[in-house]
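Weekly sync notes, structure subgroup
Attendees: PM, AL, DS (notes)

Item 1: joint prediction request from the bench team. They want all four components modeled as one assembly rather than separately. Inputs as received:
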Amino acid sequence: MIRFNCDYSEGAHEKVLEKIAATNMEQTEGYGRDGYSMQAKELIKKLCGRTDADVHFLVGGTQTNLTVISAGLRPYQGVIAARTGHINIHETGAVEACGHKVLALSSEDGKITAGQVEDYCRAHMEDSDREHTVQPKMVYISQSTELGTIYRKEELEELAGVCRKNGLFLFMDGARLGYALAASDNTLALEDLGRLCDVFYIGGTKVGALFGEAVVITNPFLKEDFRYMIKQKGGMLAKGRLLGLQFLALLEDGLYMKISRHADGLAEELREAFHKAGVPFLVENTTNQLFPILPDDILEKWKEKYSFSYQQRVDQEHSAVRFCTSWATKKEDVEQLVGDIEKIYAK
Amino acid sequence: MIRFNCDYSEGAHEKVLEKIAATNMEQTEGYGRDGYSMQAKELIKKLCGRTDADVHFLVGGTQTNLTVISAGLRPYQGVIAARTGHINIHETGAVEACGHKVLALSSEDGKITAGQVEDYCRAHMEDSDREHTVQPKMVYISQSTELGTIYRKEELEELAGVCRKNGLFLFMDGARLGYALAASDNTLALEDLGRLCDVFYIGGTKVGALFGEAVVITNPFLKEDFRYMIKQKGGMLAKGRLLGLQFLALLEDGLYMKISRHADGLAEELREAFHKAGVPFLVENTTNQLFPILPDDILEKWKEKYSFSYQQRVDQEHSAVRFCTSWATKKEDVEQLVGDIEKIYAK
Amino acid sequence: MIRFNCDYSEGAHEKVLEKIAATNMEQTEGYGRDGYSMQAKELIKKLCGRTDADVHFLVGGTQTNLTVISAGLRPYQGVIAARTGHINIHETGAVEACGHKVLALSSEDGKITAGQVEDYCRAHMEDSDREHTVQPKMVYISQSTELGTIYRKEELEELAGVCRKNGLFLFMDGARLGYALAASDNTLALEDLGRLCDVFYIGGTKVGALFGEAVVITNPFLKEDFRYMIKQKGGMLAKGRLLGLQFLALLEDGLYMKISRHADGLAEELREAFHKAGVPFLVENTTNQLFPILPDDILEKWKEKYSFSYQQRVDQEHSAVRFCTSWATKKEDVEQLVGDIEKIYAK
Amino acid sequence: MIRFNCDYSEGAHEKVLEKIAATNMEQTEGYGRDGYSMQAKELIKKLCGRTDADVHFLVGGTQTNLTVISAGLRPYQGVIAARTGHINIHETGAVEACGHKVLALSSEDGKITAGQVEDYCRAHMEDSDREHTVQPKMVYISQSTELGTIYRKEELEELAGVCRKNGLFLFMDGARLGYALAASDNTLALEDLGRLCDVFYIGGTKVGALFGEAVVITNPFLKEDFRYMIKQKGGMLAKGRLLGLQFLALLEDGLYMKISRHADGLAEELREAFHKAGVPFLVENTTNQLFPILPDDILEKWKEKYSFSYQQRVDQEHSAVRFCTSWATKKEDVEQLVGDIEKIYAK
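Output from the run, pasted for the record:
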């Protein structure tokens, strides 16, 4: 069984493990106040061009999302997101459990536009009974999105502009940020995120770490007392250095981008094979997730050899599924799948 | 600087790291549904004498506490705990953030008694306006407690009896369970916990793992849909096998007890040295935490060599502090401290 | 200015006020344990054909909705509702503030169907990662709906059937129940609600009372400890008899139905006038709310004489607005508006 | 049966009812935006000497407390209160249900001191791990307190000073404010509250209204978006004018103070009778609540004639109970009780 169902099937890049092992018996202060975490934070601030930012490490994505969103909202405020956004459909209502409504906007490709946000805010402000509705205060986007698409620089600039105009925080979920930054058509650098987002994170779990997300906060309001928030929500790792060490390993020599390019490159090979075979996609993208629409009988056959994840039914005989590559995907596994794509469509 | 301030200053026992490294590039299913997690769960159920139990792995203690407590309570119900309990004073109101009041009982030694719980429940039931007060529904205890003391078998049996009689869940925080089980005067086995508690956990973070707590649920009500709770509260690790692997390493050959005895043994050496030197304790105990009451000037001098944690002021010239040993504490470090204890009190 | 914008512009029916005044200086027990509240509860149980039900009085609709929904759900569970449902769009996220997601289903007429609920539940159960999504556990409907439509007996029976099959609670918001029961094409009696709903309420605020909603709970799980829920959520009125007295006044002689018929009858006069004048409706219905689609210039002119509420833009020159009648609407006010409808469309 | 158990056994002062009846069929805007509410708000601002304040009307005390506290705190912040405070023991954990811990301070007489608050804040700031504990951000006091005592002007000034110094909001629960203002030894005027409190309320429910509390907010942060908070928490009355009208009736001619003096005067008669009879008090005070310590056999006998509320056991043969007078208490009822006090102690 070759797993293409997600990008977290293996452990961590060997450099990550080495760093953990090499420092294992050192004694350090707990809760992220150790020297390694400090180093990693400084490095991240430099990479993002924001030495004034605050950086915090959390263990996973849902936890990061709920902690950041809770930190930014008063009780009657909500967070705007694409209907397909992870916080809206794949976190068991974690945001609601913290008391806040997700204000879901329609989206075909996983992205939302500045125009949609502007319309939502205007409608709210024009409502004379607006205190009967949830007040929008934050915009949540994912880069890359849950459908593998990416925001372009001008799109992010427009979103940031609308957010500033309307007093909203712009929050970018970067669980798959590496795969977005490494995409062939990417136009955004970490410095752009540092400049445009009030808060975003650099995902480790899906990009070479055992676990871990590095939250970068540029907005002063969100910085205040953020460690209280982390602790209360159960996200403060006792041995916090484990997070600092992993991000050091990933970021100090450009490993993060290198392994992200590896994943995107292999995804491109699969994408081409599907294209050649005439397989349509639910959505076009350039990152490590592919959403081909395939006949159910082929999917049934492939199940024995490959794991992939089910996305949605398209018609009576076809379904959209998801194939992912990752930092750990082996070239030979991709080649085998390419062969199967070619074989079947050769008929 | 030698760290005695807590029991999570180092990484993990080498066997734990080895197991993670050895399986690193294997592909497994995510979110704790992999084979290693399954194996570890089976092992834990056997060790607790409860093959009918459910076992779940979470990353840390606060997260585990808030998830278990949320799972057990309806909105108007609260959890009884010692005033010194971790959930009451060291989790930034995590339980309250989930909507529930901690019903704090007075305690000198970190423990609460069956009589206290019984009195609390009786007073609630006798109150004709009881719907104006929080309904007690769970009892939270720690083993060992935040003051290093342990419950004896008969005490736990009485608590369990009162809980059953009054329809309360009995929940044991086992963040330091190893150090309790390994204590020289311990009378409780894992099977007793499986028999008496509705839910408890075997702590990994402080006892040889990088991180991780193994929750054992014996009560059917608490079992239901517990994975939803974990996911919502941000505690579901994508690479869940990391938790399964660590508990396999710790539990399959008795390593957990062996390293716990190591810590308790070294703590005993320190305890004896303090006793000999005539140093009183804030509370007497037999586990890996010690709370000597020392003159402030000695503490000031020791700060350069040792880290320890401040507990409370006792009088104008004395403070109670905490020294911890752990699975990782080195014998030579303990000997050095013993030497300093003897030296100073020789005067 | 004649107000047609809502059905709560006046105080209370005179019989309601009389009853409050007549008993004003009597001393009674607080918090709804007085004799008048007891009488009213018995009467309501009889009218609903459920002497085994529990009845509680709350002050307003949002409070009632959030209290009932909180009482029924565990933290990871959500409530299914029409996208137009009051809890989804007009309660400032009150349900989310209690920790629960509103699972919104599309609806053109304010109603949802048994088929939609069944599909939602099936999709949830077929999802192998369902613990990553909110578990549906309750269905919220309004009778009449926010668009003035009503459920027919067979529709409610089907919804109840799907709810029972899938283990969901069926909750009916009856803020405007009188106007539904009095509708010319109504097929549901209070006994049907008692038989089919797990919980519902008989709205007083919009149907002749100063304020107040009478919650009828038939499901044993929801009954348990409901008074704790009311108190915690701030809904327990110290002088609870004020609620009992009002419902006695409204229900002991059929006043509730009589005044509801009054409102529906006047609405019918307006509806006919609009129909005759060729005015289309956003949605057709038979209760006290009308949603005509009118030219913006006429609306502009009418604003000086009438208050009505804005619903939505339909095209560049037309908007849908809402006109309400109520128990208190005067025949002469309706006649004046009818005159204006005729006049304008005479052109 | 004569009720002395609480101060909400009757309806409302006749002037309150008259005002509601006189305006009953007027049409007004909903949700507190009517002219009567506006008038009442202006009047209250003037009486408090704060024309810059915001005034809002809510239905009851628990609702008011939870709404104000939620409005003021970020998720990890808590509210300091006396252990005897209503929010700590008689609101079914309403504050915790909004996510916040009540930080309870010991108190013998229902009051807390500036020194206690200062110590709490200092201890928090000196804790190097303070993000592991709840951050104090608000102080809740009651005037009069749950034990009938009152804060003197210098005490309130000191509390306000400590709050400002430490960045805490000072919140006064005025459910029984009238009885405090009318006390023979009162030193505080409404203007003092307007000057010293960030937010407080003038209680109506227990002082002549059917229901209702008038919240006065002087702190700009707390003012922001407060109507969203009221709506979300279920406290926005559709027919909001009912609240405005009642406060107009109570405040426009000094009725509030007149009826408060009535209650305090009758309480004084009872107090003197108890004193003469040698009955000790649990706590001495000058307002409408009395806490005599009486032999159980007398209490048993009195139960047939009077209702009073049980406070606590004092010794094997004596209990402290509570007797309340109110705006509605009849002189002849007090005289009868005075007679019984004299009779029994004559023996």
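Discussion: Chain A has a mean pLDDT of 97.
Action: AL to compare against the crosslinking data before next sync.
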